[in-house]
Amino acid sequence: MPGPVTAWGPSIPRWFTWLLRLLFLLVAFLISVVTFFFRRLPVSHRSLPPSSSIRERSLGQSRQEPFPAMAYLSMGEAHRRITDYLSRFCDAVSSQDAATLSALLAISSNFASLQAPADALNVFQDSNQLVNQVERYAQFAEILSPLLRCLQSYRLGRYSDAYVAFEKAANAFLQEFRNWETAWAMEAVYILALEIRLLAEKADRELSSSGKNTEKLQGAGSFLMKIFGALAGKGPKRVGALYVACQLFKVYFKLGTVHLCRSVIRSIETARLFDLDEFPVKDKVTYMYYTGRLEVYNENFTVADQKLTYALMHCSPNKEANKRMILKYLIPVKLSIGILPKQWLLEKYNLMEYNEVVKALKTGDLRLLRRALREHEDRFLRSGVYLVLEKLELQVYQRLMKKIYVLQKQKDPSKAHQLKIETAVKALNWLGMDMDMDEAECIMAILIFKNLTKGYISHKNKVVVLSKQDPFPKLNGKPVSS
């Protein structure tokens, strides 16, 4: 039967009222359960709103390395993952398994395989006690404890903390390595040298984004010198000295302190370590590349040509990007000694910024050279070859004067060796170069002084008297004399 009618309409049945009460109680219970478990989760497991994500990235988390969200882990599973990592480390040392040990130390370069223990460390917070409780782990506690902290910090995107922890672990590992008689762990030492540099670069980017001083890469350079000192002696361990030297070069070039490379080179050569046959090819290629770049900066183009050519010829055929890096410096060096690259080479390695430079040297058109320097100024400055290319102007002037000489020889062979400065001025003005007689005479004097032209200047007659035998000598692989 329907309920009684009131002034406000039909009354609500009593069973419906009880049903609503039960529903409210059930919803309240579910909310309390969800809230209870949510509070038990670590902060890193909770989803962040978009603004928090942006804030976290601004403190150093890289957009290029987004880590997947951490799945919920039980305490038991987290414990199992951490002990598995610790056991693998100890097993690798006891069995002298360098490959496994290297993979466990590759925090940055191989993080995908280390993500499971890294996630576990954010659930099981007392990893230090776990390391110290088991004697097998405790003997490597000075390595493992900071290494676990590094893993945890890296997973959370705190790269500065990760670097500090890794450096501490690497110092302890290096001490152990010094005590080992053989070089079985050399591959792991390579990983230490690589990781300390990569983590330092990430840490400095994080510090820079928060307005702090960037000092980690400089610290990495100091630590790499420690590794270099442990290797740069006699015995089987010295084979790793070249790899560590190359990591040092990368740090010094990044910091803009290339003068420090000289001390490393002297250490290798003085210690008589530098026998190319005993080092791996990839290390020799890297070493020649960086030392070749140093010779470019010092304008020692003959030695730079030898070193960079060696690097190019021995570079792996599959490493197109590495070949391009070498050619960025080898091409300016070749141009400086009078050797021009083929068009197909520039196109293959996408180095067309040198195209107009080559055309200028072929045609004697100074406008092309200056336009190329102007259009690609930032790129050439970053590479450090701008001044090298700017000095090619003398070769362009030589080519222009040679073209004038050839035209005169065709018109009147008997007077071909007498090049009027006025004719040179007209040619330069036709090319858009605003130049008077005195300036043109000065350029001719420099060409003669630099052995780019053979002859002498008759100042009274305003004529350059050219040699009848090879008046414009080729460089033939030698740089312009200073």
UniProtKB/TrEMBL annotation:
Q: PCI domain: which residues?
A: 285-471
What Gene3D superfamilies does the entry give?
Answer: Winged helix-like DNA-binding domain superfamily/Winged helix DNA-binding domain
Q: Name one Pfam family in it.
A: PCI
Statement: the UniProt record of this protein carries the keyword Translocase: no
Q: Which UniProt keywords apply?
A: Membrane, Transmembrane, Transmembrane helix
InterPro entries cross-referenced by the UniProt entry: Csn12-like, PCI_dom, WH-like_DNA-bd_sf
Q: Name one GO biological process term.
A: post-transcriptional tethering of RNA polymerase II gene DNA at nuclear periphery
Asked if the keyword Membrane belongs to this entry, the reply reads yes
Q: Which residues form a coiled coil?
A: none
**Can you name one GO molecular function term for this protein?**
double-stranded DNA binding
TM segments?
Answer: 15-38
A GO cellular component annotated for this chain's UniProt record is:
transcription export complex 2
Tell me where on the tree of life, at the top rank, the source sits.
Eukaryota
Q: What is this protein called?
A: PCI domain-containing protein
The organism named in the record is Zingiber officinale (Ginger)
